[in-house]
Amino acid sequence: MAKRGIVLMNLGSPNSTNVSDVRLYLNEFLMDERVIDVPYLIRLLLVRGIIAPFRAPKSAKAYRSIWTKDGSPLIVLTKALQEALQHKTTDPIAIAMRYGNPSPGVAFDELRAANPDLQEVVLVPLYPHYAMSSYETAVEYAKHIHQKGGYTFNLQVVQPYYRHNAYLEALEYSMVPYLEQHYDHLLFSYHGVPERHIRKGDVTGSHCLSTAGCCDIPSAAHAKCYRHQCMTTTAMVAARLGIPKHKFSVSFQSRLGRDPWLQPYTAKRLEQMPGEGINKLLVVCPAFVSDCLETLEEIAEEGKEIFMHAGGESFTMIPCLNAHPLWINAITQLVEEV
């Protein structure tokens, strides 16, 4: 019997592309107080009265454009990651989602049922960077389920690995084949977050977004600063690949609502770039380790259409790490270092 188990925890997905399933998923996702951080009653009115009813049909259509015969790409790819990792370790592995199925409780029960003497479970959040609306909510939810369920095994958590050598190496080598083609520019597109999330996570209360160069000034705030961590990943990967500064940039995608989010916005930059002489574009999305709606539909389909309509000549999205062999090695190393 294994003494240690592993849980790979990803974002989640609707059960199907039916509008009702998508609406159910959006309700769970957007009612998370770490995603839309406003008082409960206001959040309830916004999500269930306005956002989900109007957004569900549009999101269902987007999901249908990327859905596979085996279901949601994110779920399929997470299962593929689980299978590939299982070949590298004797520790039993289960998968969990922050929203939708399977829940952390299902993953914990699966590991415990097969291994009654289980002493420790290592949670691997499939989010390289710390953000309250991704890494933090996943970890806190898993901890809540662990405590509520009265599980006797210890729960250990892999910390954000945005600058870990093994993650950077995997990202670097996954990009190399695409960089061999001629390109004018490489855009690092990260999932956006509201600026208020950055300020709320600032443990100093005065550093984040206080100056244009705040991410470059050493601060305790960086431990939970999503923007700093995205910039760090970008700089380190570009350096490893030898890409000059003028040939890459950062943007943030997936904005929801009218509040200011981290800028520049990806959609806006894609529209502007052809006018700046950038006609052959590569896009990579390091905040995602599994291809999903935000990469396959928002970037590879919608983003490409925006860029090409604005006069671009070629547009290539570099796939996420998915089950890349070096990513498997990285997870193995991250688990061993907990």
What does this protein look like?
This protein has 338 residues and is α/β, with parallel strands linked by helices. It is built from eleven helices and eight strands. It folds into two domains: 4-161 and 325-336, Rossmann fold, CATH 3.40.50.1400; 165-317, Rossmann fold (3-Layer(aba) Sandwich), CATH 3.40.50.1400. The protein has helices at 19-30, 40-66, 73-86, 104-114, 132-148, 165-179, 195-200, 226-241, 266-272, 293-309, 325-336, and strands at 4-12, 93-99, 120-125, 154-157, 185-191, 248-253, 280-284, 314-317. The strands form two sheets. It has a four-stranded parallel beta sheet, sandwiched between helices. Helix 1 crosses helix 2 (40-66), helix 6 (165-179) packs across helix 8 and helix 9 runs parallel beside helix 10 (293-309). The radius of gyration is 20 Å and the shape is globular. The chain starts with a strand and ends with a helix. The mean pLDDT is 97.
In short:
With 338 residues, the chain is an alpha/beta fold. Helix content is 46%, strand content 14%.
